Amino acid sequence: MADATDTTDEGVETTEVEVDDARQGLLDVFTDALGDAVVGSHIEPGRGLWVRVTRDAWVAAAEVAKLRLHFTFFDYLSAIDWMPSPWGRYEDSAVDVGVTPFDPTA
What we know:
Blueprint: E1 2-4, E2 17-19, H1 21-34, E3 38-44, E4 48-53, H2 58-68
Antiparallel strand pairs: 1-2, 3-4
């Protein structure tokens, strides 16, 4: 990891930004392999890399991690359902009231 600093034309030093070259390199591999399927990412220097891909790219992302990067430990997969909750956002929420609850038998 390296600290990146910049100096303005007036000679004033700007805020330091910690750069994690190793995790950036991993992200570059994912981005090169998956292209537009990478829809977001976050690097926490010295701690972790999070890569957000489209649902259709989950298998391809796993293959990149295993076959190209030789990762052998799978840590976390998450999904978010952006549909409105049929019961409101909270137990007593007035939001989404009137939406029929999902009936899996229908």
